[in-house]
Design brief:
The chain is mainly beta. The chain is about 10% helix and about 40% strand. It is built from three helices and 28 strands. The strands form eight sheets. A six-stranded mixed beta sheet has the order 4-17-19-18-14-13, with no helix packed on it. Strands 1-28-27-26 form a four-stranded mixed beta sheet, with no helix packed on it. A hairpin with a 3-residue loop joins strand 6 and strand 7. The relative contact order is 0.15.
Length: about 425
């Protein structure tokens, strides 16, 4: 095959390939635009594997007060200690809009004095993995906990999300595979930072993040597409929630959606207008009782968490939010773990552990669409990837990296 013909084939395939949401030009440009003047922070150095000292620490972690020691071993004189205090803290739900407003106001006051905070919401990497079921599933991390994808198949048809928020349907027949229909999800002219989907029975559920320029914020929409007639797919409707899509999971007929919503430093908040500082679900502000927050702690980022029963997809089964940012997620069959690595961005350069803070973890339980807060804990170091977390026999396992030592330390906690 001649080079020019090969180039043409590669170019055509590349143009149809969906770029990961976090790397879309619109998303990158928007995040750079959002960056404000920040506090001076320590930029953690990138250290090669040769230079890094690797320390394996096995910690028995429960949700009570625990202290773990690493004894001297093989001539190593370093003694290592972790103290995780799980006594009642000031995390609260059932509070008031007034307390929530004070947290946001405190953050904005810090912003005006030159201490701004921003976050880049990242979703979990996805891929296609066919299995012997009615349609393809993507469960990269936990078997039975399905993740979104941009390509799905039911064995007879192939469903592909393409640029321009278009769902294209192909009839699978080997070399004779042909396109039979397509449908545009929402307004094709809208700036969107990510789009992904699930298949369930004769329906597709498409998640799309849209930038709303007038409000200078993102909104995540969940569209239901009727696929009973693949030649004529029909959008049945959509629901929405504040924020940019971070990740999602499908478990036992319920779709769980997580979106990051931020109050930018130049956006004015008013105590008597809760819509100026409280995220919305279907254009209605969340109840104060459904928002978890740390009293009297400055915060301007929410993680909005919702669930949708797919047999009744045009309304939410549950809705919660936490007044804190989260950048790494792990979802088991019963629990949701969200990690905040205290990330800041300066000219699109990532800084972890801002202010010398280690990562913090929030744990939630979920069952049949109901999401419940459990506890918050401080972790050792930072947890940089979702695949660095796991739940095993009731224990939470994670790999951390600690940049506060003279040499980078990597460890394992159980």
């Amino acid at each position: 095959m001649k080079d020019d013909k090969m180039y043409k084939i590669i170019r055509e395939k590349a143009e149809k390939t969906l770029v990961p949401s976090g790397l879309e030009p619109v998303a990158v440009e928007k995040k750079c635009r959002e960056i404000k003047q920040k506090r001076k922070t320590k930029k953690w150095p990138v250290v090669s594997g040769v230079a890094a000292a690797v320390l394996l620490v096995v910690c028995l972690q429960t949700w009570n007060t625990i202290r773990i020691h690493q004894e001297k071993k093989g001539g190593t004189a370093e003694k290592y200690q972790i103290a995780m205090n799980q006594e009642e803290n000031s995390d609260s739900s059932g509070g008031s809009y007034d307390e929530i407003f004070q947290c946001v106001k405190m953050s904005q006051e810090e912003t005006t004095s030159g201490n701004a905070k921003t976050q880049l919401a990242e979703d979990t990497a996805v891929g296609s993995q066919p299995s012997g079921v009615a349609h393809s599933n993507t469960d990269l991390q936990v078997e039975g906990v399905e993740e979104s994808d941009v390509i799905k198949t039911d064995g007879q048809y192939i469903y592909v999300l393409q640029k321009g928020a278009k769902l294209v349907i192909y009839q699978a027949d080997g070399k004779k595979t042909t396109k039979i229909s397509s449908v545009t999800i929402g307004d094709a002219s809208e700036e969107n930072s990510g789009i992904e989907m699930y298949l369930q029975d004769d329906q597709a559920f498409v998640l799309k993040s849209v930038y709303k320029e007038k409000k200078d914020s993102y909104e995540t929409r969940i569209y239901t597409v009727d696929l009973k007639d693949q030649k004529h797919p029909v959008i049945e409707g959509s629901i929405s929630q504040s924020g940019e899509l971070s990740t999602s999971r499908l478990v036992d007929g319920y779709l769980y959606v997580f979106s990051g919503y931020g109050i930018l430093g130049d956006r004015k908040v008013k105590e008597d207008k809760k819509e100026s500082y409280v995220p919305k679900v279907n254009d209605t502000c969340l109840e104060a009782s459904d928002i978890y927050y740390e009293k009297e702690k400055a915060a301007d980022r929410y993680m909005v968490m919702t669930s949708i029963k797919l047999s009744d997809p045009l309304k939410y089964a549950d809705q919660k939010a936490t007044l804190s940012q989260s950048d790494v997620f792990y979802v088991s069959h019963e629990n949701i773990y969200m990690v905040d690595n205290h990330i800041e961005y300066d000219d699109c350069t990532v800084s972890y552990g801002v202010g010398g803070e280690n990562a913090s973890l929030q744990k939630y339980t979920y069952e049949a669409g109901t999401i419940s807060y459990v506890k918050k804990a401080d972790l050792k170091g930072i947890v940089s990837e979702t695949y660095n977390m796991h739940e095993y026999n009731g224990n939470f396992v994670y790999v951390y990296t600690d940049y506060t030592k003279e040499k980078t330390v990597t460890g394992l906690c159980i």
